Amino acid sequence: MNDSPTDVFADLAELARTLGHAHRLKLLSHIAQGERSVERLAEMCELSVANASQHLQHLRRSGYVQTRRDGKRVLYRLGEGPIANLLAALRQLADFNRSAIRELLVDSRARQDRLEAMSRLELIERLQDHSVTLLDVRPPEEFALGHLPGAINIPLAALEQRLAELPADQEIVAYCRGPWCVLSVEAVAALRERGFRARRLDTGFPDWQAAGLKVETVV
């Protein structure tokens, strides 16, 4: 027998209730970038190991995360299903509501080139003919856990000092954590000011991964 509508909404409410804590969302956000131990997750979220473990158990019971044992360590990864898509949607909504993003969107009317983006489909086509250079402006740890194939990792803060690593004769496509992540926006603006042809990807790494597209890691 199919669940009644009331049962469905009760299930949805329970799933939403599990996510109703900032620490759990932060933990999930880090796990979405790649598999990590509870100790590392606790450090990244500025929590005690015991506190992080408690939140992770809630996430595990609801299917948001899975675990595996590596020697004495317990490693966490995202559970099955469209969890990365859910996180991306929540992040987009939250970012859209932030005043800084609203100001950026208003500014874009006068400076449209700052937000000009390349679609995922166009990027896939351009990667096939090797006509673009991919620039990942996330922190090195996130890049190591997973990135778009062939991407160069130069965090935004280091871009000024490492411009020589980028080809001057090829279009550069910058990406970061998602469509509203300002790191790639600022990277594109900085590159264009220095004479580079540059655009940002209209999504980010979590969205690329959620779409089932190929990713690379640093071993």
UniProtKB/TrEMBL annotation:
Domain of life: Bacteria
Residue span, Rhodanese domain: 128-217
One Pfam family it belongs to: HTH_5
Family annotation (SUPFAM superfamilies): Rhodanese/Cell cycle control phosphatase, Winged helix' DNA-binding domain
HTH arsR-type domain residues: 4-98
Signal peptide as annotated in the record: none
Recorded coiled-coil stretches: none
Protein's name in the database: Metalloregulator ArsR/SmtB family transcription factor
Origin species: Pseudomonas fontis
